[in-house]
Amino acid sequence: MLECKNTSVIFDDGTKGVDNVSLSISNGEFCVLLGQSGAGKSTLMSMLNGLVTPTTGTVSLDSVEINKVTKRAIQQQISMIYQQLHLVPRLSVLHNVLVGKLFDVSTFKSLFKLFSREDERRACMLLDEVDLEEKHIYRRAVTLSGGQQQRVAIARAFMAEPKVVLADEPVSSLDPKISRKILTRLKSASRQHNVAVLCSLHQLEYAIEFADRIIAMRCGKVVFDGVPSDLNDGELKEIYGHEYRALTPEERALLERKT
User: Fold this and answer.
1) Which end is more exposed in the chain, N or C (fewer Cβ atoms within 10 Å of the end residue's Cβ)?
2) 22-59 pLDDT, tens per residue?
3) Long-range pairs for 145-152: beta carbons < 8 A, 24 or more residues apart
């Protein structure tokens, strides 16, 4: 379980990127993080991954607190999927997935692509899980479509057998059809490998459709934490403030199916 208790991140100018946030995410749980730009979502994710040190409070994984001594070991158990995928264009799809094992492989072996057969089999299995066909395995990543590259990023994230995956706006540049496919694959992988996923999104309809639980932020604070069916106009006003809009008929239909 990934947990933070009474955590705040205060920047040099006094701005609170995270403001007294406490939450926990359990194995196999698919959580969506909602909020406007500047709400604190990316800062929270960076804090949970140990990239940003909380000014106050603690972050822990399976009751082990992240600190200078434990940070590297804990980071090996937390994978990231970024909006900018950071694939290596010249490498094959297979070797981009194997990059997810770099924490466990020596620099010499990684330079010469000397991964074990077991690692290669696992990489191929993960690519199959995200519906990339065998013909894609040895293609260079740069030749793939945006949606296919995102699937490679998902497979890479699960390559290290993490306990937690943090996905920061993973479908922001994709069209709705591809976005739903990617989120379906990500949620399926979470279930299949019993991995906690925290996925930051802007699109409310995707949150309603895919989330087991929605965590929403505003001005660094968590202003909603619950199942999608608990969302209502009052909660949305709290999340979005003056940019609030009423639920669309499609979103209301999704909520009704969730109840």
Assistant:
1) C
2) 999 999 999 999 999 899 999 999 999 999 999 999 99
3) 146/173, 146/174, 146/178, 147/174, 147/178, 147/181, 147/182, 149/85, 149/87, 150/85, 150/174, 150/178, 150/182, 151/127, 151/182, 151/185, 152/85, 152/87, 152/93, 152/96, 152/97, 152/127
Buried b (16+ CB within 10 A) or exposed e, 135-161: ebbeeebeebeebbbbbbbbbbbbbbe
Q: Please tell me the total number of residues recorded for the chain in this structure.
A: 259
Six token digits for residue 176: 């709705």
241: tokens are 């403030």
Q: Kindly report whether the global pTM for this prediction surpasses the value 0.85.
A: yes
Domains plus CATH for the chain? Answer: 2-77+163-258 (3.40.50.300), 89-161 (no CATH)
Q: Are 229 and 259 in contact (CB under 8 A)?
A: yes
AA identity, residue 87: L
Measured CA to CA, the distance from residue 166 to residue 157 in angstroms comes to: 9
